[in-house]
């Protein structure tokens, strides 16, 4: 399996992600939106940083279930409840310092949204992985 990440020189510089990801694979895993929920299904308290840490841990668990790792991610969409650029940048930076940082070197989109599915939820990740 090969995953090629491309940044055409004619496009703008990115803060770490690639404009294009090509996966030479026959198997793909589509993860349901990974939420900051604990094992009891409750939203993790403690603000955005705590929720990002919980989401990262949940992503690692989900990837492990299909024998994948963050570097196998070929597409990410990050939803953050905020319309503040500083909050969005903080979320991007924390994700890129987390145990799933390799997932964000691929084709990635970061969106500020008004609300997510659970009361108090501040972040959600939508991920696609090319399976080894």
From TrEMBL:
Listed Pfam families: Ribonuc_L-PSP
InterPro entries: RutC-like_sf, YjgF/YER057c/UK114
SUPFAM superfamilies on file: YjgF-like
Gene3D superfamilies on file: RutC-like
Family, as annotated: Belongs to the RutC family.
Protein name: RidA family protein
Provenance organism: Kibdelosporangium philippinense
């Amino acid at each position: 399996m090969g995953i090629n990440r491309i940044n055409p020189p004619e496009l703008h510089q990115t803060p770490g992600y690639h404009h294009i990801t090509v996966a030479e694979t026959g198997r793909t895993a589509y993860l349901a939106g990974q939420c900051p929920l604990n094992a009891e299904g409750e939203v993790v308290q403690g603000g955005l940083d705590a929720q990002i840490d919980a989401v990262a841990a949940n992503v690692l668990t989900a990837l492990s279930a299909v024998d994948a790792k963050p570097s196998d991610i070929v597409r990410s969409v990050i939803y953050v409840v905020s319309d503040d650029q500083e909050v969005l940048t903080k979320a991007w930076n924390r994700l890129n310092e987390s145990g799933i940082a390799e997932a964000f070197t691929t084709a990635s989109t970061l969106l500020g949204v008004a609300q997510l599915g659970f009361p108090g939820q501040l972040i959600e990740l939508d991920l696609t992985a090319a399976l080894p």
